[in-house]
Design goal:
Helix 5 crosses helix 15, helix 6 runs antiparallel to helix 25 and helix 25 packs parallel to helix 28. By secondary structure, the chain is of the alpha+beta class. It is built from 29 helices and 25 strands. Strands 16, 17, 18, 19, 20, 21, 22 and 23 form an eight-stranded mixed beta sheet that branches. Strands 1, 2, 3, 4, 12 and 13 form a six-stranded antiparallel beta sheet that branches. A six-stranded mixed β-barrel has the order 5-6-11-8-10-9. Helix content is 52%, strand content 15%. It is elongated, with a radius of gyration of 38 Å.
Length: 864
């Protein structure tokens, strides 16, 4: 009988046989393994040859090439990591495809969103003095506006030493320009003070920034307008006719206005030209609000909120010393805050929404997190396939820190591969994304910041997604692994299940958000505004049309397609005019209420289908109606009257005294973000817009008739027409874009989640193949087996729903509160989202479960 090798001799042999640097790492585990094999082999069978065999198990193929593993230099170590990572990717193609595609899609979504967020957050920061420029805004109780009086900017500069410069801008206006007998109607035209280009850093290609707006007959045009009007000729010094009357000279050509400027314009006219006829500019009025005022302060003079508040109080005091008839509170709005933090009325169009920026930043993080959770789940699910590798690496001397570094390096390599794919996808889909978002975004890889940002995203994604698998796998004990006794702890299973729950909770959050946004947009589209917007088209009253209004009305009445018309000062879609100089019998002298007003004619109620609930409308036959008024229900409420008693009551606006002749039912004349305010209707003494209600199906005929009438009565101006319902729809363009992006990203987040669920269910089914085979042999039916393999995933989905539902309710309720009129959060929205998630889970899991269930038990058990 051969003599058993004692453990102490075995260790001495090991110390002689292996490299000294390995002794301290594996002696204990190796000795335990040797003793276990001695017991299994039986007495007298564990001889010297057996001891050598145990050592050779490690030495020939593993120890020799990896001895000194812990002393590899950085280059060699990374090269080794890359080889191992690449080998794993190639050998496990399905796993690799799920991981890389999930991360690539997640990165694509996140990068696109972050490009949009970065653009939205960059508005007006390109101006040299951006941090020192403020816009003067104000509020009268609940009425907040972006405009201020004509004389206030200059007056404040004279009285407040902290203000070193001021400039004004008119409200945007539609203007007709003529060059070489060609006429162009431009929308984005402003009057601006002569120092406008000294305060703002808009690039002037030709001309002198200090004098370009100093002459009354000079104007500034952008390079695109110069190309449009003059072709390849040098536009500087050329003349342009404005509104068929005045001749202006091009004194400067501007570069294209940056897309991230809250001020978007094509042409600037000199304010001194408007000051020749505009009474508020001539008198330097402090009472009528109609101009955007910008103030530049001394550097660091508003370094704290307290300093800003102090300066605003000073402005209020100066205002009160000039105007005593009503009280206004003024604010200084930082230039860089205007785009995202401006919910003011009578503002320049095109503002963003800070709430949307925050929401989409969160969505970018959510989608990236969902993709990282995929990686974690799939990596930890496949732990058994890497366990022996970890055990052998530890046996040959690898530190845990080196193993963590290896797994983090592998996840980072996968992350960078995903980033390369994501960049390719971004270049393909960016034009479509720009169309949906209404932006002109681009990804400039050669610039420093974008490149650093992309690398940071890939690195953070790699480290985040690989952190838990690295910590988990590197913590395996080699002796348990090599004995085949390694099992995943319950805590790790709990963590992995928690990741699935978090993943589907985030997907549910996006899905519910999408449904709520859709419902709100649908609510806006279908809400009864108090008037019928369908079949209403309008043309602006320009040139000679209003002076020839009697001929215009006669021509319109001759055709049934145009006979139902009204001439009003402003469209009841987003009224920008209002007055606080109103009075009635019994009014509280201290009460200040802004009354938005509109000038209408005798056909107003009939054309817009507005309900008259008391009194009558205006009449052309009663001259006294020129001083009378109509009001809405809200105005009656504000005045402390009722609809039955208000008719015939005294009412005054500015210096015009009259009586209330009619009361109309409340209707929405501003976007639904604003509640209905007291409304004042006066007799229209000027122009505005001709609104025609066309018979259903006769719109094209009406347009043809209007064009002929316009050509006969106003040939000097081009004929243009618009639809009122289209204007109303355009008011919610930001919400529509948000809804579309929400839809896309919610679907993609759900798709990424399904990729992970597919991989996880495939692994779980593979792990239980033999169990299923045995159960089938013992008579288990297909339904029971499917239920056995699927119930855990359904349980996780239900938990995810229970977590996501209250959170999504809170977030979406907060969003809906930004609308004065909004839909309600219905229970069916949450139920539908939950059912969709359950159905997708069933579909995803079943594809793998059924494959395992229908496998022949002979194939699954033949290795036993």
């Amino acid at each position: 009988m051969k003599k058993t090798v004692p453990p102490k001799f075995f260790l001495r042999f090991f110390r002689w046989f292996c490299h000294p640097s390995l002794h301290v790492y594996i002696e204990g585990d190796l000795l335990e393994l040797y003793q276990e094999r001695v017991e299994k082999a039986g007495k007298g069978k564990a001889d010297w040859r057996f001891a050598i065999d145990v050592l050779l198990l490690f030495r020939p193929s593993i120890i020799k090439p990896l001895e000194g593993y812990h002393r590899l230099n950085h280059y060699g170590m990374f090269k080794h990591y890359f080889k191992v990572c690449w080998r794993n990717l190639v050998q496990n193609k399905t796993y690799s495809l799920l991981n890389i595609s999930g991360l690539a899609i997640g990165m694509t979504c996140s990068i696109l969103i972050l490009l949009w967020v970065q653009h939205e957050s960059s508005y007006d920061k390109f101006h040299t003095s951006a941090d020192k420029i403020y816009r003067l805004t104000c509020d009268v109780r609940d009425f907040k506006t972006a405009v201020s009086p004509a004389g206030m900017a200059e007056g404040l500069q004279e009285e407040i030493p902290e203000i070193i410069a001021s400039t004004r801008l008119s409200q945007p206006m539609k203007t007709l320009f003529e060059v070489n007998d060609q006429k162009f109607e431009e929308q984005q035209v402003f009057f601006a003070d002569s120092n406008f280009l000294e305060m703002f850093s808009f690039k002037l290609l030709k001309g002198n920034a200090k004098t370009a707006l100093a002459r009354p007959d000079g104007l500034l045009i952008t390079a695109s307008i110069a190309k449009k009007y003059f072709g390849d000729e040098d536009a500087l010094g050329k003349t342009i006719k404005v509104d068929n009357e005045e001749i202006f000279t091009v004194t400067g050509i501007l570069a294209a206005i940056p897309a991230n400027s809250h001020l978007q314009f094509n042409i600037l006219l000199p304010m001194i030209r408007a000051a020749q006829t505009e009474r508020d500019l001539i008198d330097k009025s402090w009472e009528n609000f109609g101009y955007y005022s910008y103030l530049q302060v001394i550097e660091n003079s508003i370094s704290t909120p307290e300093a800003q508040t102090f300066l605003e109080q000073k402005i209020d005091q100066i205002w009160a010393s000039h105007v005593t008839t009503f009280e206004v509170n003024f604010q200084l709005q930082p230039l860089t805050d205007i785009h995202l933090h401006s919910d003011l009325q009578i503002d320049v169009p095109g503002h963003g929404n800070a709430q949307y920026v925050s929401s989409f930043s969160l969505i970018a993080l959510v989608i990236l997190l969902v993709a990282c959770i995929n990686f974690m789940n799939l990596a930890t699910a496949r732990y058994s396939r890497r366990a022996k590798e970890v055990g052998l690496r530890k046996v040959v001397g690898a530190y845990r820190s080196q193993l963590i570094g290896q797994f983090l390096s592998e996840s980072s390599i996968i992350s960078f591969l995903s980033l390369l794919i994501a960049i390719g996808i971004i270049y393909l889909v960016l034009p479509v994304f720009n169309d949906i978002s209404g932006k002109e975004l681009s990804l400039e890889l050669l610039e420093g910041k974008p490149l650093i940002g992309l690398i940071s995203i890939a690195l953070i994604t790699g480290l985040l997604s690989g952190s838990y698998p690295a910590l988990l796998l590197s913590g395996f004990k080699p002796i348990l692994v090599l004995k085949g006794k390694m099992r995943l702890a319950n805590s790790n299973l709990l963590f992995r299940n928690s990741l699935v729950v978090v993943q589907f909770s985030l997907s549910l959050l996006l899905l519910i958000g999408t449904a709520v946004v859709y419902n709100q947009l649908n609510f806006i589209k279908n809400k009864n505004l108090g008037f019928k917007q369908e079949n209403l088209l309008y043309i602006p009253i320009t040139g000679d049309l209003f002076s020839k209004r009697e001929a215009l009305k006669t021509a319109l009445q001759q055709h049934s397609a145009t006979s139902n018309f009204s001439i009003i000062s402003e469209l009841p879609t987003n009224l920008s005019s209002g007055s606080v100089n109103v009075g009635w019998e019994g009014k509280d002298p201290d009460a200040q209420v802004v009354f938005p007003h509109i000038s209408v004619d005798e056909n107003f109620e009939e054309v817009f289908k507005i309900e008259l609930i008391s009194g009558r409308g205006f009449s052309r036959d009663l001259q006294t109606d020129a001083n009378n008024y109509m009001v809405n229900e809200k105005a009656v409420e504000i005045m402390g009257m009722n609809v039955n008693d208000a008719v015939g009551q005294y009412f005054k606006n500015d210096d015009t005294e009259g009586v209330i002749i009619g009361i109309v039912k409340d209707f929405n004349y501003k976007p639904l973000q604003y509640a209905i305010e007291p409304m004042l209707m006066r007799w229209n003494r000027g122009g505005g817009n001709l609104v025609v209600r066309t018979p259903s199906g006769n719109t094209e005929e009406a347009i043809t008739i209007l064009e002929k009438i316009h050509q006969n009565l106003n040939p000097a101006y081009p004929f243009t027409y618009h639809f009122l319902d289209k204007d109303l729809e355009n008011q919610y363009q930001g919400e529509q874009q948000m809804g579309m992006l929400f839809n896309i990203f919610a679907i993609l987040a759900l798709f990424i989640s399904c990729l992970g669920l597919y991989g996880l269910s495939a692994f779980m089914s593979e792990q239980r193949t033999k169990e299923i085979g045995i159960r089938k042999v013992l008579g288990a039916n297909i339904f029971g087996l499917v239920n056995l393999l699927s119930k855990d995933f359904f349980r996780l989905t239900v938990i995810a729903f229970l977590l996501a539902a209250p959170l999504s309710w809170y977030l979406m309720n907060e969003w809906l509160q930004s609308f004065a009129y909004h839909t309600t959060l219905s229970w069916w929205v949450f139920a539908l989202a939950g059912m969709i998630i359950l159905f997708i889970t069933l579909l995803t899991v079943s594809s793998q479960v059924l494959k395992t269930v229908f496998m022949n038990p002979v194939d699954s058990l033949k290795s036993e």
